[in-house]
Automatic annotation (TrEMBL):
Species of the source: marine sediment metagenome
Gene Ontology molecular functions: ATP binding; helicase activity; hydrolase activity
Listed InterPro entries: P-loop_NTPase, UvrD-like_ATP-bd
Name under which the protein is recorded: UvrD-like helicase ATP-binding domain-containing protein
Record key words, sorted: ATP-binding, Helicase, Hydrolase, Nucleotide-binding
Domain UvrD-like helicase ATP-binding, residue spans: 31-135
Taxonomy of the source species: unclassified sequences, metagenomes, ecological metagenomes
């Protein structure tokens, strides 16, 4: 048995590399301690203080040093906005892009629970897997609206400078 992969150690050289790569000038003691720390911990700070930037920096360092082809890093966020920001920032570098594919997982807590807990449970107990296709659901709902209701809704969306892009028609 090979056991669990060890988390690579983050060195001062790694921190210098990521600071140069991401243009980070203000890596004080607390930020450096965050980048070097392993294990489970919480980071609490005000909005705009650089939490996501530090998470992306740490992930880029780990991606650069990751040598386990069948074991990955799991990053769970509370919101899709945070997930998208992490994925977008990582996706702009070849090193970070590695984390966007198997064996790594970056998504919301909800997506993790669905993919790795709920759906496997349903399948293993003989229940068909529910499938929700956002485009199909949107098209179905859009097609249900008829006449004056649809016209009112379209005008309301236009006044908000928003639209429904429905490319799937049922």
């Amino acid at each position: 048995m090979t056991g669990h992969p060890t988390i690579p150690e983050v060195t001062d050289e790694d921190i210098a590399w990521i600071a140069d790569t991401m243009g980070l000038d203000d890596l004080d003691g607390d930020r450096r301690a965050f980048l070097k720390r392993t294990g489970t911990f919480d980071v609490s700070a005000c909005p705009g203080s650089g939490k996501t930037t530090l998470v992306v920096a740490k992930l880029a360092i780990l991606a650069r040093k990751w040598r386990h082809p069948t074991s990955g890093i799991c990053v769970l966020s509370h919101t899709n906005v945070a997930r998208e920001e992490i994925q977008n920032r990582l996706g702009h570098t070849p090193v970070g892009h590695r984390l966007l594919h198997y064996p790594h997982f970056i998504d919301t807590i909800h997506a993790f629970a669905n993919r790795f807990l709920a759906l496997p449970y349903l399948r293993s107990n003989g229940f068909p897997s529910p499938l929700v296709d956002d485009d199909v659901a949107k098209a179905f709902r859009w097609n249900v609206l008829q006449g004056q209701e649809r016209w009112n809704f379209e005008n309301w969306l236009n006044n908000r400078h928003t639209s429904i892009d429905v490319s799937v028609v049922i």
